[in-house]
Amino acid sequence: MTIRHLRIFKIVCEEENITKAAKKLYMTQPAVSHVINDLEEKIGNTLFDRVSKRIYLNEFGKLFLDKAIRVLDLYDDLEGGLDNLKEQAVLQIGSSITIANFWLPTLLKRFEEQWKNTPVRVEVESARVITEKLLQNEVDLALIEGVFPRDNLVCIPFSSYRLVVLCGTGHPLASASEVQIEELAQQKLLLREQGSAIRDTFQSAMTLHNLSVSPAWTSVNSQALIQAARHNLGVTIMPDILVEKECERKELVPLTVAGLYMENQNYLAYHKDKFLSGPMQGFLKILESV
């Protein structure tokens, strides 16, 4: 039983005549009769009484017509509202912490202005966690930073930031014109957690110099590490955009480390097999203009 069966049945009921229904449907009379007979066969019951070359909707047919009309109304409502449904589907965005602090609010503000009917759900985690959620289809789009992610993801770069080594003004290294990387490795290090793009980039840089990292502090909260560095409890590594004010106020001192330059690229990523809905494409276009 198909929607076509129900539409033709409804017109036959309205016209109370196969020939008139066929004319309205731009079909032949035998074709309409065939559809009605096929429908009756599929439901296992007659819908019309055939008396003296006329058709009369029987009691079963009346009950069936009532349900058929409701089904057709729902179908027409669904078909006519598909564009609205596409916009009303939740857009799930995952973001690493630094991007969520500095880029995501502006991007979402512009998105909400253009896609007013699309609800957005945001998850903020470390870059590694967000990447895994993207691979498991738990988020639609991911804003991640750091090392270029896996091959089965489409990654579009949109900005970057530099990582700086910092200490407090009272720290022994604060007055040094240049710090050797081996000396840095021996300091009390105040680092982000494993899986954060900041930690991964720093560890990769140290590994290139055959140096290992053993932090004195580990935290998911950058501000906690910044405050610890301000109080001369160790050396931290932070995005330059995150510590601009502290450096301007001379609460933190950026250190020049010989042979060490660190930068994280920011990406928008999605799975290569993911269907890009209208809202997802809209978010991509907004990102391209950043």
CATH topological fold name of the largest domain? D-Maltodextrin-Binding Protein, domain 2
Rg from alpha-carbon coordinates? 33 Å
Major sheet, described briefly? Answer: 9 strands, mixed
Residue stretches low in confidence (pLDDT < 50, at least 5 long) are none
Class by SSE composition: alpha/beta
Tally the helices.
Answer: 13
How many DSSP E strands? 11
Whole-number mean pLDDT:
91
Query: What is the class of the largest domain in the CATH system?
Result: Alpha Beta
In total, the number of domains comes to 3
How many angstroms does the end-to-end distance come to? 52 Å
Secondary-structure element order, as H and E?
Answer: HHHEEHHEHHEHEEHEHEHEHEEH
Helix content: 40-55%
What is the CATH architecture assignment of the largest domain? 3-Layer(aba) Sandwich
The CATH superfamily of the largest domain appears as Periplasmic binding protein-like II
Shape: rod-shaped
Task: Give the structure's gist in a few sentences.
α1 (3-15) crosses α4 and α2 (18-25) packs across α3 (29-43). The chain folds into three domains: 3-86, Orthogonal Bundle (Arc Repressor Mutant, subunit A), CATH 1.10.10.10; 88-159 and 266-288, Periplasmic binding protein-like II (D-Maltodextrin-Binding Protein, domain 2, 3-Layer(aba) Sandwich); 162-263, Periplasmic binding protein-like II (D-Maltodextrin-Binding Protein, domain 2, 3-Layer(aba) Sandwich). Strands 3, 4, 5, 6, 7, 8, 9, 10 and 11 form a nine-stranded mixed β-sheet that branches.
Q: Would you mind describing this structure in some detail?
A:
The chain has 290 residues and is an alpha/beta fold. It folds into 3 domains: 3-86, Winged helix-like DNA-binding domain superfamily/Winged helix DNA-binding domain (Arc Repressor Mutant, subunit A); 88-159 and 266-288, D-Maltodextrin-Binding Protein, domain 2 (3-Layer(aba) Sandwich), CATH 3.40.190; 162-263, D-Maltodextrin-Binding Protein, domain 2, CATH 3.40.190.10. 46% of the residues lie in helices and 23% in strands. It has 13 helices and 11 strands. Strands 3, 4, 5, 6, 7, 8, 9, 10 and 11 form a 9-stranded mixed β-sheet that branches. Strand 7, helix 10 and strand 8 (217-219) form a beta-alpha-beta unit. Helix 2 (18-25) packs across helix 3 and helix 7 (104-114) crosses helix 13 (278-288). The protein is rod-shaped and about 110 Å long.
